[in-house]
Amino acid sequence: MKQDLKEKYGSWAFIAGAAEGLGSAYATALASVGMNLILVDQQKALQEKLAGRLNSSFGIEVFPIHLDLADSGALRIILEALQEKACRLFIYNAAYSQVQRFLENDPDQLDRYVRVNVQVPLQLVHAFCAGHKLKPELRKGIILMSSLAGSWGTQLLGPYGGSKAFNHNLAESLHHELKDEGFDVLACIAGPTSTPGYLASLPRGKVNAVAVIKPDQVVLAALRALGNRAFVIPGFRNRLNYFLMCRILPRSCSLKLMNRAVGKLYREKL
Q: What predicted TM-score, i.e. pTM, was given to this entire model?
């Protein structure tokens, strides 16, 4: 799998939301096979620390881009970097997420969900596919990070879950539509993962109440599945829950169970 990535997708990979958590795990996995990296994140200190570690550990080239994906000029800056490096592996891990009641979101927060989680990945993927002036026999890879939260309508997670459902459906659609045009497209549907962002969202005292998997487990599953299927759900427990909730139980029952579990976990937010 490791050598196949560089042979199949070339020497450059792009990761949005790269400074920590899943983004950092993707960067480490790809750097370990000798791929150079375009890393996008607004957390400058963390990103520079990661870039330095990857460069010293693996001798790869890192092209860091420090920006907020919600900024109006973000698309242009990223597309210029993708073209300059002839990048053929695109991973969108960035996301805006808040665990709170829907009416507690202000208009700026609602706009940010749409901009960071939906509009930017949609436009970047479109430009990545349409504007790449590469030989047609060179395959290109796209991984869009989704979430099990997008599989059900769950209280406190409405805008986030809705945006993740969009990314799941977009990736599945493009997997079938573009596979004969040289594109491998995958939705990675992650469950609870021990990233700094997710752990920080849990109520105090309940960090150990949720079964989580490690970021590198998610990344390994995604990189192995890319080019072979439309979506992957890392982790046996997550796959089992998805199967039971989406294939066995009536949706009305699944919704009750999920909303009961979320309500119990985040009781103080209701």
A: 0.95
